[in-house]
Amino acid sequence: MPSIFTRIINGEIPCHRVYEDEHVIAFLDIGPVSRGHVLVVPKEERVRLDQLSDASAAALGRALRIVAAAVVKATGCVDYNVLQNNGAAAHQAVMHVHFHIIPKYADGSGLGMKWNAGTAPADAAELAGAIAAGARQAL
Ligand code: 5GP
C-alpha cells in the first residue's frame, strides 16, 4: 500500500507544493508547528533515511538547502530547525522518509525540544571506530 506521501507525489491527494525535482518534492505540512513548516520528501518510498539510494540522498541535500533558503525568504524567519524522524519510537508518524523545515520565530513559536545531553562514553574511541568502519564499507 503506498504511503500518504507517495499518494501526494502521484497527485492523488492535494498538497501546497513549494518545490519539485526528479527525486524530491516539498510541500507545506498539514499540521504546521509554525508558519512556513515544510516537508521535504524523496520520491523514492523508503521508511528510514539509511535505506535511501545515493541519488535520493544527494538530491535531498540539495533540495534542503534550496527550500530552507526559500522558507527564510518567504516567512522572514531567521532561525529554523531541520528535523528528520526514523521509527515510531523516534516520533515518526508517516513511514516514508521526510525532513521537516520548521521556522523558529522571536515569539518562541517553532520546534520545542528536550535535549538529553549526557557525557562522552568511556568506550568513545571504540564506538567511533565501529561507526567509521560502517561508513567506510558504504563508500
Ligand atoms: P513525522 O512525525 O512522521 O516526522 O511527521 C509527519 C508529518 O506529516 C506531520 O507533521 C503531519 O502533520 C504531516 N502530514 C501527515 N499527513 C499529511 C498530509 O496528508 N499532508 C500534509 N501536507 N502533511 C501531512
Helix content, binned percent: 25-40%
At CATH level 2, the architecture is 2-Layer Sandwich
> Kindly state the mean pLDDT as a whole number?
97
By CATH reckoning, the class would read Alpha Beta
Pick out its properties:
139 residues, alpha+beta, HIT family, subunit A, 5-stranded antiparallel beta sheet, 5 strands, globular, binds guanosine-5'-monophosphate
Describe the model:
This protein has 139 residues and is an alpha+beta fold. The protein has a single domain, classed as HIT-like (HIT family, subunit A, 2-Layer Sandwich), CATH 3.30.428. The protein contains three helices and five strands; from the N terminus they run αβββαββα. The chain has a five-stranded antiparallel sheet with strand order 1-2-3-5-4, with helices on one face. A hairpin with a 3-residue loop joins strand 1 (17-20) and strand 2 (24-28). The longest helix is centred in the middle third of the chain and has 22 residues, at 54-75. Guanosine-5'-monophosphate is lined by residues 4, 13, 15, 27-31, 39, 85, 91-94.
